Amino acid sequence: MAKVTVVFAVLLIALGLIGYFGTGAQHATALIPTWFGAALGMFGLLAMSPDEGRRKLFMHINVTLGLLGFIGVGVESLRGYLAASHAGRQPDMIALASKLTMTGLLLVYVILCVRSFIAARRSRLV
Questions:
Q1: Contacts of 77 (CB under 8 A, 6+ apart)
Q2: In this structure, are residues 33 and 13 in contact, taking their beta carbons and an 8 Å threshold?
Q3: Quick check: 39 and 10 in contact, CB under 8 A?
Q4: 53 lies in a domain?
Q5: How far apart are CA 73 and CA 125, in angstroms?
Q6: Would you say 62 and 47 are in contact if contact means Cβ atoms under 8 Å apart?
Q7: Cα gap 18→101, rounded to integer Å
Q8: pLDDT value of position 124
Q9: Nearest one of 79, 3, 82 to 40, comparing CA atoms
Q10: What's residue 93's pLDDT?
């Protein structure tokens, strides 16, 4: 699962950089996926350890980061969209697309982590 974490980290970093430079490098908040990706990547690399305790610790940190990111960005996406709609203006579609992409990536990541944790628990019980 640590290798999958690094793949998702690279995807998030790419999303942040594309969002930032694709909009003319005007808004530093477009780099938020990059920071989440960097954190996931760092802990993902630390999880690539032969020590089971260390691997479990860093993967639990990663899934917690992923879940917090999913909830935070999901709520922010909804809040931003509703605020723009209630103000009678069009929401920033590039920002919304970036937020929804990050939300989707983190949702898939958390689901994969939970499935992996369940499979690991079941294999230990057998």
A1: 96, 99, 100, 103
A2: yes
A3: no
A4: no
A5: 36
A6: yes
A7: 12
A8: 82
A9: 3
A10: 86
CB under 8 Å to 16, separation ≥6 — which residues?
A: 30, 31, 32, 33, 34, 35, 36, 37
Does residue 62 lie in a domain region? yes
Count of domains forming the chain:
1
Global pTM reads 0.89
**Residue range(s) defining the domain that contains residue 71:** 2-46+58-125
> 95-123: string of b/e by CB count within 10 Å (b at 16+)?
beebbebbbebbbebbebbeeeeeeeeee
Residue 7, domain member (yes or no): yes
Give pLDDT, residue 60: 94
Distance, CA of 88 to CA of 96 (rounded, Å): 16
Q: Please report the pLDDT score of residue 95 as a whole number.
A: 86
Segments of the chain scoring below 70 in pLDDT: none
The label of the residue with tokens 């640590």 reads: 2
In this structure, is residue 24 part of a structural domain? yes
